[in-house]
Structures are given as structure tokens and as C-alpha cells.
């Protein structure tokens, strides 16, 4: 009998001969990530549990991103507690202003194909873009992993998503994952792994795959997995091992469901206020006036996203009254975008370019909105109150669509 | 293997964490103050009726919704010995084990169950109800240890020789 990708990763990690969905197994963490919001709670629980040292300080990464730079008086307390915890327990991997945790974990080389990774954030699913099993957990569990290096998991069933063909020019991977979330529903993949395959997926950059893996959790998924290939190897700066190369879903693997799409059938879409699975084609929303556009986040703040936006905005101006906020996902992306002239194009068009970080996506800083205002945004959640008051309307879209909307001052399709 | 009997309360599908404890009561200082409002949007009288050792049997996707750890804490504080459902939402499942609340997945019991009846549970093996046996997938020892210790923090303290 064959195996799914997640089953192969778990077999490799545990050394178990057979693994089947529903089994509860104990896995070893290859890497863990803690961000600034939860570090005080993790530190408290860790000490309450009576641990005296980290199981492996080299495998723990602490990233300040939600609160950088501080926007409220209490924020710096998190940095002080984090710095003290890192110093006390010998953690060397601390990023204090380099960008968003989910971007840095793969970009800085902390996650490799086939790894098992846990983070204190629901969008930890992102690292499936390189074929790692990664999932979000609470702070109590993180404290226990820091002490033991292990965590129990339930082996998930898998939904295989097969996409074949060439995407239309105006469609980005964001449109694919939004459509899938709409088709599955917000709980359609609860407990499950998603596995993405097909010629469209093979053609995609690692960055585009990240967008999809990032948002898998919005359908309730435990993780999202892409087969590591040459692009993955280049991105991770490694030679793929035999194990890493074997991370494909077997023909005779057992899947809960197989969903097939033709790439040519995708159209630009938006998630309408205020559910991520409330998906409509952009063509049906045209004309709705907007106040702001946000291009950034761990979903869509990468170089190809900024380049796509710049392609739309080049030699044009953002509409009067519309604030276009651009937030690169990391310092590295920020620098590359400067070197490639992308920042200049965005700035010339009237964009407000901010420091890398979670910024507006977590609704704390950098462009929060008020009652009755509308924003088109490239991040992953449009929940009530996410970017200001509960009367702000958030439409989620791809960077290309978002840039076109910024020019028009209303919802339009990108040309 | 641990065996116990208990009176059953039957709840439906998709019992979300807002039903288990509505957001408005989360600001109360203690779980003891909150627990009287457990399940109040669905059955306001239920929290007052549940007795120590009772069992909840429910349909699919029990505990869906937010990640609030207060949900399993309240069920436990009400005295519920275990929850047996067709399925659990992922975060709720983890939070329950980590807070020492025993959960079991069983696909058929819910459809046959009448509220108020008594069932006999043999942990890791089966549920006995009206002469029929319903199999339960076994929990590995480490999870049983977490639950018996009273949650993950306590289990780790025990592991580290503190309690």
C-alpha cells in the first residue's frame, strides 16, 4: 500500500514501519518558532513546568514581528521577556526586526523539506511550501516542546488537490487558494492535510506555493504539502536527499478525497466581508468604492507579489483618497525590491512603503481603518475587526487585483 | 484499564466553543465563575444539571471555532468525566488533552444514544451501552499520562520531579 506525503514524513520522523490516519504518534520537532505575542506566556509555562534547559537551543527560533516596531506602551515588555529568555537558555536564533516569522523560517534556512516544525501561530502551515510538515499550536504545548523536543500528533487523512494546465495571466496563486477555501468551506479541511500536485503546481515558484500553504489553515487544515523539487532545492540551497525526493503522494496512497481543477478555469476572485470562504469573482464586485489597499503579509508580501503590483502600477498614480500601503514580508525582500527598482515604481505611484513585519494584517498598526471604510488586502483573514473596527469591510485579493483596485479607487479587474 | 460508568448528556453536531462558553463570559476571573454559563446559548439549564462523573456524547466537529482554552477547562470544571463524539475540532482536541479532559472518538454511539441513559466506559477499549459494545481507538500511554496528571503543565511538573 502506498503513502501520502504527510504519512511519509511522519514515518521518517518516528521510524514507525506503518502509519495510518487516526494513529496518535509522538514526533520529534526539527524546529520550533515562537513569535513576540506569545513569548511571555511560553516563558511562564516553561518555568512553571519546571524545565531548567531547552531540549536543543539551536532548534528554537524567536521572531519579533507582530509588535515591531512597538505601537503600544506595553509592547516592548514582550521584547524584554523574549531577550531575557533567549539569553538565559542560550537561544541564538532571535530575529528582532528582520521580517515576518513565516517568511523568515524558510528564507533564513530554518526549515527543510521533510522537517516537522511547530509554531505558536496558526499560519505555521506556510512551510509546507517546501514539503515540511508544519502546524500551529498553543503556548502551553510550545513550552512542553521546548523542554522535551517532542509533541503528540494525530496522523491526518489527506485531500489531494490536482491542478493541471496554464493559469490565465491575471490569476495568481492567491486566486487558487481563495477558490479552494470557497469550495471546501472554512471547516472543509479540519484535521486534514492538503496535498497539492499537478502541472500548474510544478510550474509555480516556491513563493506562490507559500501563499497557498499559508492559507490552508483558513479551511481548517492541519498542514498543506508540496512535493520538494528542483525549485525547492534551489530555494533552500540544498541538494535533495533520497528521502526528500520521495515526498510525493503515492499512486496507491489512500486519500480522503481528490479534487481536480483545470488551471484555465480559474478567474481572479475576492473573499468578501467577513468570511474567508465567501468567495466571489472580481468581475461580480466591480464598482465598489474603496478607501485603502494593503499589499503585504506572510501571504503576499514577497518579491514576486511586489513585482506583480509594480507591473500594474508602473507609470501610473494611485487614485485620490486611496491609501496604498505596501509592507514587504522581510528585510531581504525589502532590499531586493529596492535593488530591482520595484520600490521606486511603487513609491512613484504613491504607495506608502512600511518596514517589514505583520503590520496592518494583525490590525495593530500601519493603516487601521474606521467604521464604514473598505479595504482591499492581500493578507489571509478578513474577520470582523481584523483591521480596525468591526464595521470595516475587508476584501481579500491577489497583489495584481489589489494594485488595479488602488489605481481605480474601486474594485476592478486587473487588465 | 480504567473503567467507569456515567449518566449521558447528548449534544448535537458542531458544538462550537462559543456555545461551550460565550465570549461575554471570558472576562470573568475564574473558571469557577464562568462554568455556570457553560453551554448557555444552547441549553441554559445544562450547566446546573451536570453532576460530577457525567459524560457528554455528541455528533461531529465538537469544539469547533476559536482556540480558547477555557472551553475544555469549563467542561472539566463542571465535573464531566469525558466527552465522546463522532469527531473533534483539531485545536479543541489538543487543548482538552493538555487541560486534562478525556476525549474519545466513536462514530456510532451518538446515533444510538438516548439522553439520561448510563454507559460504561473502558478507557482505550470500548463503551458498553444496552448490551452493545462500541470500540474506541486507543490513546497512547503518553496522552493517558497527560490526562491522568491533570493536564500538560502538571504532567511536565511530574516528569521534572516537582510534584
Distance between the termini of chain A: 48 Å
Name of the level-1 CATH class of chain B? Alpha Beta
Assign the CATH architecture of chain B: Alpha-Beta Barrel
Helix percent band of chain B:
25-40%
What's the level 1 CATH class of the largest domain in chain A? Alpha Beta
Q: Could you say which structural class the secondary elements and strand pairing of chain A correspond to?
A: alpha/beta
Rg of chain A, rounded, reads 21 Å
CATH superfamily of chain B: Aconitase, domain 4
CATH superfamily of the largest domain in chain A: Aconitase, domain 3
Radius of gyration of chain B: 15 Å
Which residues of chain A form runs of ≥5 with pLDDT under 50?
none
Strand content of chain B: 15-25%
Fraction of residues of chain A in helices? 25-40%
Largest sheet entry of chain B: 7 strands, mixed
Order of strands side by side in the largest beta sheet of chain B?
4-3-2-1-5-6-7
Strand neighbour order, sheet with most strands of chain A: 4-3-2-5-6
Largest interface: A-B, 26 and 26 residues
Oligomer: heterodimer
The structural domain count of chain B equals 1
Give the mean pLDDT of chain A.
95
Q: Helix/strand/pairing class of chain B, anyone?
A: alpha/beta
